[in-house]
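Q: How do we represent a protein-ligand complex in a form that can be generated token by token?
A: Start from the inputs.
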Amino acid sequence: MAEGEYPKTGTSGDAEPFRLDSVLEEADQSLCRSLLAQAMGLHEKGDLGGAERLYRAIVGKGYRVTDLLPITANMAWQAGRHGDAMADWNALLALSPKHPVALLESGRALAHLGRPEEAEARLRAAAAALPESPAPTADLAMLLFDRGRHGEAHALCLDAARRWPEAPVFAHLARRCVSAKVPFWHVPMVNDTARNEAFDTAIRAAVAAHGQDAVVLDIGAGSGLLSLMAARGGAGTVVACEGEPMVAAAAREVLAANPLGKRVRLVEKLSQQMAVGTDLPVPADILVSEIISSDLLTEGILPTFEDAHARLLKPGATILPRAVAAVGCLVGGEDLARQSLVGSACGFDLSAYQKLSAPRLIVDGLAWQALSPVVTLLSLDLTHPHHPRPWPRWNSAPRRTGRRWASCNGCGSI
Ligand SMILES: C[S@@+](CC[C@H](N)C(=O)[O-])C[C@H]1O[C@@H](n2cnc3c(N)ncnc32)[C@H](O)[C@@H]1O
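Then emit the structure tokens for the protein with S-adenosylmethionine bound:
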């Protein structure tokens, strides 16, 4: 394309070049000024189709092109002619590659059109072109969030919240990123006094038994609480690892807020990515870890502990907790029935809706009655370096007591 020319816009496949304002004859300019006044008049009256046709005619003559292309692009977009809108933005960017509005609006449009890679590139360019504005960064963070890149979106939002403290969108989106990756139970867990005290007692005893040279490895630092306990117990070396970056960032702040935190080394990795010699000075004497889900296994305790035994611990290291068990019983009662059974409502038979009831319920907080004795469903000795597959799933079955018959409608966990 020759200098002073740009591609035609708002239609597809037409590569006919047009002149720029600077090369317009005075007569053309005066015609264009008059057309522009008419277009603006139509626009004001709400005749969008007529106005857009005139704006495009003026653009076609090469007059006030960079001013008018954003208008035609927006009008085409509003009318649902997304291809025309994108052609206008692209034409504008061909003329002015760093045009901030074209970068931002076309980035938004590409995101809307389901073209996320191109959208991301445009929004990043818009952020660079508009360093004082939070808008491109907000759109970019939302795009990353929608694509499941929560860690990146979170880091971007934290940085943006510092730069633009007056823009609440970043704090809000940062919290959405956290809740997408960090389960709700992190907070109630650290407020579970019985749990905390049991760990504290066990950690103190283990460190006392090993002496002050004890090397403690805390897998899954969370807040860093168990590591702080180990440091308070007198362990010479405490290394904590945390695999979720958003949790690790919070742990770093917690450690900084507590004087004993200086004695804890936080490694922002999964334990499976750690190595002795780099992340741990020597194999650890004590492993402390609370990666125990309500059903015991789904936080990966067995493969994680097996890997730690094989690579990160001294033979015969102290393991806290050394054993875990899941217990259960048959439960029932009015509250649970309301959560899982459907009969009639307001005189209508809704029983077919029963098919949609959840096969699994969190029963914590609900009133329930035990319908059988408590039995051990699964127990594991975590001091064993290996747990042969298949893992034990069910050690004994709950027994029915009395003469009550009912249907079993799923399972739950506390
Ligand atoms: C249940 S929380 C426990 C937090 C803390 N240790 C406590 O007891 O308060 C488990 C944490 O371990 C992390 N985690 C799970 N498996 C991990 C692994 N293999 N390596 C590092 N972190 C892990 C999770 O991201 C989560 O933050």
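The chain has three domains: 1-96, 193-321, 327-413. Confidence is low (pLDDT under 50) at residues 1-19.
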